[in-house]
Design a protein that fits this description.
two-stranded antiparallel ribbon; membrane; Phosphate transporter; transmembrane
Amino acid sequence: MVETLLAIGILASIFVGFNIGGSSTGIAWGPPVGAGIIKKTTAAGLMTFFVFLGGWTVGRNVMDTLSEGIITTELTLSAGVAVLFFIGLGILSANIFGVPVPTSMTTVGAIAGLGLATGTLNYATVAEIISWWIVTPIIGFWIGGIIGRYIYPAVNQRVQIKKSDGPLLTLNRDGRVPKPTFGPNTTWSELVSTTVVLIIGCYMAFSAGASNVPNAAAPLVGGVGGLEPDIAIVIATLAIGVGGFTIARRTMESVGGELSDIPLLAALFVMVTASTITTLLSWIGIPISLVMATVMTIVGIGWGRATRPVTVREAVTRDSEQSEIVPGAITAEEMEGKPAAPIGEEEPEEVLNAGDLFNPRAIIKYISMWIIGPSISTILAYGFFRLVPGLA
């Protein structure tokens, strides 16, 4: 019986990891793939390795919180398998609405529902987690706002990330030992910028592993007949990798429309900021959504760049009738390599005619799913374990 239950749990874990790989790989590697800097297969390979590294190191802290911190008793194998199915339902419902699922939040909701049903909920831990869920979007927004208003325009003026025709590096076989050399059109600037892009992509993959591997692995750890943490991490990583090599090929082309609408340089700022926030919170054991930090950083950078025509004094005194806020300022790729207008002055025509960076209705839909997803998983888990207490 235990072996059968464990087999079902492993299949559920693979399903969850597979879907995580499909969405997370697109977020981490969509911009570099779209810019032609890296191929989809190479991106999926790097994603798998660094997801494993993130899950194996920082992710263990999140696993401890999920398996032991949210409820006051150890998460049993049967309860863990049920939790995985609730996570899978959350992913499925989010896919129906076309919104990336906050997997970490859905996982916490399901385990919290178990705790409510059995009277074992650790209210202090849950309160701490929820407080970080409230603070994280605010942090991402304001960091993004500072970057968009003060940092991005200056960097955008000096740095251009372009992909030249032909390979970046080739092998010189004139000597006994082949040596790497520049491609026919490669410059030092292109080599350095490409290296930075790849490092940032790997960093985001590491962050995705730290936050997402525990969601697929933790419910199977502990209890009679449960898996060892190392084995659970490997299974979850392999499932995420399969998702990266298969269904993520499509998401890397679109990245849901968010990152693909802004220049690669702006996307890199988003990736670094969101990854750092997610990694730090994972380090202290807080289950957090990488998508949450990513979306709010995008909004923050767009807002910060758009408000440059308004000075701080004008914003505080509301005396900004003569200044136009340009919601599409950061999408004006014609301005790459050109100086931005000083703060408080009107933007050039190329910026005024740019399309909007984000659709407010889309942002509302994302935020709604961050609330609805965990709520649904909590209610379903609570009802299930109240009806079937023997599985808890």
